[in-house]
Sequence to fold (96 residues):
Amino acid sequence: MKIDHELILKLEKLARLKLSEDQRSKMIEDLNDMLKMVNKLDELDLHDVEPLLHLSNQYNVTRTDKVEDHMDRDAALANAPDSDNEYFKVPKVIKK
Fold:
């Protein structure tokens, strides 16, 4: 893939940018340099390398879900500024 003036104009339109001609030529140069760097990876011999699925050997390390000490509803609502004996009441945030 080659980055050219036409592609930059298309990207500029999609991103709703207005670039000067100097900025466009700098962008073409920078993007082509990035592509060269990425294409260097094609030179590596990765035939015997397994794909990396996870960054560590640990997989789905989770804690057990167990019930511990909790506060009952009456104690939780005792210090609430406003409640209806079952739920906390809060001011309306979204107005229709």
Notes: The radius of gyration is 29 Å. The domain at 5-43 is CATH 1.10.20 (Histone, subunit A). The chain has a mean pLDDT of 89.
